[in-house]
Amino acid sequence: MLVGVAVSVLQVVTQIQEMSLTFVPKLFTAGAVMILAGPWMLRKLTQFTVQLWSGIPSMF
């Protein structure tokens, strides 16, 4: 979100309305977040899935 606001402010100040100017920084930011936070998110998702599957027998 911060990258989107920063790019929007840059576009307003410079009056450049190029579509790739908004897309490329957001794409790089999303990629960087996935690289940095990906292992943590995968670990959390794995823990949740194991907990969910382990709890199924107690439901019946």
Structural features, described:
The protein has two helices and no strands. The chain is mostly helical and 60 residues long. The protein has one domain. α1 packs antiparallel against α2 (19-55). The mean pLDDT is 89.
Topology overview:
Elements: H1 2-14, H2 19-55
Task: Name its key features.
single chain; 60 residues; mainly alpha; 2 helices; rod-shaped; transmembrane
Strand content: under 5%
Strand count, sense and barrel status of the largest sheet are: none
Q: How many domain units?
A: 1
The rounded Rg comes to 20 Å
H/E element order: HH
Helix-residue proportion: over 70%
Distance between the termini: 44 Å
What is the number of beta strands? Answer: 0
Which structural category do the helix and sheet elements fall into?
mainly alpha
Mean pLDDT: 89
The rough form would be described as: rod-shaped
Total helix count? 2
Low-pLDDT parts are none
